[in-house]
Each structure stands twice: as C-alpha cells, then as structure tokens.
Amino acid sequence: MKKVQFRNAWFPYLLLLPQLSIVAIFFLWPAAEAVRSSFYLEDPFGFGATFVGFDNFVDTITSTDYGRIARFTGIFTFCVTFLSLGIALLLAVKADKVIHGASTYKTLLMWVYAVAPPVAGLIAILLFDQHVGPIVKLVALFGWKMQIGVNYFDTGFAMVIAAVWKQIPVNFIFFLSGLQGISKSVQEAASIDCRSGFRRFWTVTFPLLAPTGFFLLIINITYAFFDTFGIIDVILKTEPGNNPVTLVYKVYLDGFRGNDLGGSSAQSVVLMILVFILTVIQFRLIERRIHYT
Amino acid sequence: MKRLQIMDHVILLAGVFFMVAPVFLAFLTSTHDAVTIYRSGMQFTLGDNFLENYHTVLTQAGGFTKQVNGLVMLKNSLILGFGFAIGKIVISMLAAYAIVYFRFPFASFCFWIIFSTLLLPLEVRILPSYEIVQSLGLVNTYTGMIVPLIASATGTFFFRQFFMSVPEELLEAARIDGAGAWKFFIDILVPLSKTMIAAIFIIMFVYGWNQYLWPTLITTDETFFTLVRGIKQILKVWIGAQIPDYDQAMALAILAMLPPVIVVVIFQSWFIKGLVESDK
C-alpha cells in the first residue's frame, strides 16, 4: 500500500465493481456450489437432491477406479515435472554458455510456449499413430510394439512426452533468466577457485538457481494437474475407455458424461484442498525468494 | 575447451530438434493428400497439396451441421484472444488501482476476495461454473465464453505489484498540481504502464487463444467454434472414417498455432519480461 493515498467515498468501489462482480458470479458462486453439491446426492433427472453427508467423498475415494487414477496422476506429474525441469535446465545452462547463436537457440527453444495443449496432443496422436506414426515405426525397430489407445503404458508414455514437450519452454525461459541474473563476479570468482566446470555448476550455480527451481516445481505440478487436460483429451480421442486419465479429467468425465454431480463435486473439493496447499507453499516460497534478492 | 564448445552446441541442437521436429513434420504432412499419408505414414518432404489443403480447411464448411469453416473459427479465436486479453487488462488495472491507491473501508477484504481466485483453477470448479453460465443463458455467446475466464486474478496481482513499484513522489506531485484520481490514472499511471500492458497483453492473448475445455463446454453451436475447439470436432469425425483426414487435421493444427506463435516470437523480449516478472 502507498503512504499517500486518495480518499473517496465511492470511487474505489466503482473501480473494483467489475472485478468483484465477475469474481462473485463466476468464482465464489460456483466454488460454493461445488462444496454444497458434494454433500448431496442429486437425482440424475433433476428431481431434487438428498443430503448424504460425507458419503460422496467416501464413495469416490474408496473406489478402485479412483485409486488407480490417483496413482497414474502421481506418476504422470512426477515424470512431467522431473523431465521438463531437467531437460530445460540442461538446455538453459548450455544456452547461457554458448557465444555464437545464443539468441537463435533461445527463440527456437521457447516458441512452443505459444502452442495450445490440444494442438500438441493432435500432433502427438499422429506421431504416435499405429498406421502413420514415425515414432511407432522407430521403436518397432527395437521390438517395442507401441499401441496408443490400447495399451495402458504406451498411452501414458505418449501423454508424458507431449506434456513434457509443451512445458519445456516455460522452464527454459525461467532458468535462463535466473542464470543471467547470477552476477558475473560470482562466476569469475568461482572459476578461479575451481577448474572443473561440472563441480562449479553443482556447488555454485545450482544453489543460486534453487529459488527459481522451487518456484518452477510448484508451477509444473499445477501444470501437470490442470493444464494437461487438452493433451489428454485429444490423445484419448475424447473416448477414454480403459486408458489412463488424470484426476482432473475424471472430474470432467463423472460430471459431464457420467452425470454424477455429487461424486464429481466431491472430487472437485478434494482437488481444491490440494491446490490450496500447493498455493500456500508457493506464496511462502515467493516470500523467501524476495528475501534472497 | 574447443571440444566442450562443440558438445554444448550438440546438446542445444538436440534440444532444438526435439522442439521443432514435431511441428515441422506436421507442416510437411499437411501438404500431402490423405491417401498418401494413410498409405506411407507422416511425410518428410514437401508435397504439392499445400494450397489445396489450406484452402479447404479455411473455406470449406466441415463438422456435423456444415456451418463452420476455418475462417469463421479464426474469427472466433481472434475474438476470444483479444476479448479476453483486453477485458482482463482493463478490469484488472482498475481493480489494482483501487487497491493500491485508495484508502477505504473493507479494502483488505476486497483484496482477499479477489486473490482467493488464484487458489482454484477453472478446471476444478468446471461443472458448477457451467451450470451457472447456463442458467444465465450465456451458452453459445461470446460473453459466456470470455467473461468467466477473466475471473482469475492473475492480471490484478501483476498490476498491483507494478503499481507498488511506482515512486510515491509521482502521486504527491500530481496532487499538488490538482489532478484528481481519474486524471492521475489516465494521464500518468496508464502511460507509465505501457510496456507492462504490452507484455501482459501478449501472455493473455496466447492464454485466451489456447483455451480448450471452457470453449468446448460453452459452445455447442458450431458458428461459435474456435480453431482450438475445432480439434475436438475433427477427432469426432475421425472415428469411423475409412481414411481419416490427416492432411486437414495437420493443416488445422498449424493454423491454430500460427497466430500465437508469431506474436510470441515477434514480441519475444516483452513477452519474456512479462512472464518472468509477473510470476514472481
């Protein structure tokens, strides 16, 4: 807040009115509605609802389906986060170091940021297509008969690759700007003290990048949870069958296809709590990041 | 030392290959006809169906009701991208201005209400959001497509950070000169935020353009389909098709990514600045 401020009885409210009304109608109301309907069993034909307490939560969380999907979501999130952070860090370190063509590399490595997740998914299904996909032909040479949409593991694999591809640019941009923020004098001092470039990276550069890394970790987990919806929906050709899906996808499936309002809402509430925890961690990290610099 | 340099370039080139090759292949494939692709897989050369395929996708009506073509979808995508970006910037600048520059009762309450939206992505509250928008009669309207997406406070959060960094003296000087609250905002704060507005505009335009789930739910009328939304329709037509229209699918994919990619590449430095600073 500013020390010098305007005082006006109605003007600030007028300024806030558009934002507050949108938040109230399209955020608070639906969020409250999700919490409310998670405690009710809705008649599928719209004839009223019965209060069932925590039944919806117990039913969804204890179902075998939910356990399987939660496990896949966990593995998927781990793979996407780990791979996209790892590859992006490697590329950022190299892009920071090269003298020739640095800006060309930067452009070529970041433009995928603008590609929509479902577009990434659409290209992926063709690359992994059983009839026309070059990747399927390539791995067949090594004896791997890849069947996307049929084999559980193969489908999950394609999803991870597409999701990693889409996420590398964001991580790359942040890591590169983090690296460029490290002062030249620190780097020069380090290179006098230690000749091994590899050791220098792990003992000097990497710890200095850690705040950026933690911050990106949260961003990536949120991405793997929510923003991969488009990739997953397109790779499954909108018909999931027995294929792997994530928890967010299940919320959509149960709510819109299965007409299970209560169950879908209960899952929403579980995810809300999860995101809430992630966001709190994120805010704490941001505070710490500001203290660093 | 020399050898190390070469290794760096090899790694970077491998990275570039991984990022560029899928899209390049998609483009090459989009210049062939469906039968060729069906017979011999994705193509590694430039075909001679480039004009024909893109012309078909842009001008010929597809889908179930044969009402929508690529140009209509392009128009809708532009409306969504621009509408979302402009709407979000205007609304969030006003709100951030009120929060930073005014002292009024319930200020911190308003602040927390707005920032609570950062906690829950739209995907989590998708079903109740849909029902509310439906009950308001906003299905198959641009309003229903754009406004609920604006609810998240990312823009407000960013402008708040920026306004806080504006020197206090500016306001003092403006008040001595007798500028009112609105005049200060329009004549001093907005021109001062120009680069920031540009950066946020690019990020929001790309975000709006790339929306998939929400437009999918909220538009059943094909005349409201965006390019990204059109992908779902392509997949539906594929199921049961003898020879899927791989060529047109890839042409659509290229068309759907072209505008945001061009914007991001051209305004690269602004965009990176906005992205890195807004997420701090």
From TrEMBL, chain A:
<comment type="function">
    <text>Part of the ABC transporter complex UgpBAEC involved in sn-glycerol-3-phosphate (G3P) import. Probably responsible for the translocation of the substrate across the membrane.</text>
</comment>
<feature type="transmembrane region" description="Helical">
    <location>
        <begin position="148"/>
        <end position="165"/>
    </location>
</feature>
<comment type="similarity">
    <text>Belongs to the binding-protein-dependent transport system permease family.</text>
</comment>
<dbReference type="GO" id="GO:0005886">
    <property type="term" value="C:plasma membrane"/>
</dbReference>
<keyword id="KW-1003">Cell membrane</keyword>
<feature type="domain" description="ABC transmembrane type-1">
    <location>
        <begin position="70"/>
        <end position="282"/>
    </location>
</feature>
<dbReference type="Pfam" id="PF00528">
    <property type="entry name" value="BPD_transp_1"/>
</dbReference>
<keyword id="KW-0812">Transmembrane</keyword>
<keyword id="KW-0997">Cell inner membrane</keyword>
<dbReference type="InterPro" id="IPR000515">
    <property type="entry name" value="MetI-like"/>
</dbReference>
<dbReference type="InterPro" id="IPR050809">
    <property type="entry name" value="UgpAE/MalFG_permease"/>
</dbReference>
<feature type="transmembrane region" description="Helical">
    <location>
        <begin position="69"/>
        <end position="93"/>
    </location>
</feature>
<protein>
    <recommendedName>
        <fullName>sn-glycerol-3-phosphate transport system permease protein UgpA</fullName>
    </recommendedName>
</protein>
<dbReference type="InterPro" id="IPR035906">
    <property type="entry name" value="MetI-like_sf"/>
</dbReference>
<feature type="transmembrane region" description="Helical">
    <location>
        <begin position="266"/>
        <end position="286"/>
    </location>
</feature>
<comment type="subunit">
    <text>The complex is composed of two ATP-binding proteins (UgpC), two transmembrane proteins (UgpA and UgpE) and a solute-binding protein (UgpB).</text>
</comment>
<feature type="transmembrane region" description="Helical">
    <location>
        <begin position="105"/>
        <end position="128"/>
    </location>
</feature>
<dbReference type="GO" id="GO:0055085">
    <property type="term" value="P:transmembrane transport"/>
</dbReference>
<feature type="transmembrane region" description="Helical">
    <location>
        <begin position="201"/>
        <end position="226"/>
    </location>
</feature>
<keyword id="KW-0472">Membrane</keyword>
<keyword id="KW-0813">Transport</keyword>
<keyword id="KW-1133">Transmembrane helix</keyword>
From TrEMBL, chain B:
<comment type="subunit">
    <text>The complex is composed of two ATP-binding proteins (UgpC), two transmembrane proteins (UgpA and UgpE) and a solute-binding protein (UgpB).</text>
</comment>
<comment type="function">
    <text>Part of the ABC transporter complex UgpBAEC involved in sn-glycerol-3-phosphate (G3P) import. Probably responsible for the translocation of the substrate across the membrane.</text>
</comment>
<feature type="transmembrane region" description="Helical">
    <location>
        <begin position="78"/>
        <end position="97"/>
    </location>
</feature>
<feature type="domain" description="ABC transmembrane type-1">
    <location>
        <begin position="74"/>
        <end position="267"/>
    </location>
</feature>
<feature type="transmembrane region" description="Helical">
    <location>
        <begin position="104"/>
        <end position="122"/>
    </location>
</feature>
<keyword id="KW-0813">Transport</keyword>
<feature type="transmembrane region" description="Helical">
    <location>
        <begin position="249"/>
        <end position="272"/>
    </location>
</feature>
<dbReference type="InterPro" id="IPR000515">
    <property type="entry name" value="MetI-like"/>
</dbReference>
<keyword id="KW-0997">Cell inner membrane</keyword>
<protein>
    <recommendedName>
        <fullName>sn-glycerol-3-phosphate transport system permease protein UgpE</fullName>
    </recommendedName>
</protein>
<feature type="transmembrane region" description="Helical">
    <location>
        <begin position="142"/>
        <end position="163"/>
    </location>
</feature>
<keyword id="KW-0472">Membrane</keyword>
<comment type="similarity">
    <text>Belongs to the binding-protein-dependent transport system permease family.</text>
</comment>
<feature type="transmembrane region" description="Helical">
    <location>
        <begin position="184"/>
        <end position="207"/>
    </location>
</feature>
<dbReference type="GO" id="GO:0055085">
    <property type="term" value="P:transmembrane transport"/>
</dbReference>
<dbReference type="Pfam" id="PF00528">
    <property type="entry name" value="BPD_transp_1"/>
</dbReference>
<dbReference type="GO" id="GO:0005886">
    <property type="term" value="C:plasma membrane"/>
</dbReference>
<keyword id="KW-1133">Transmembrane helix</keyword>
<keyword id="KW-0812">Transmembrane</keyword>
<dbReference type="InterPro" id="IPR035906">
    <property type="entry name" value="MetI-like_sf"/>
</dbReference>
<keyword id="KW-1003">Cell membrane</keyword>
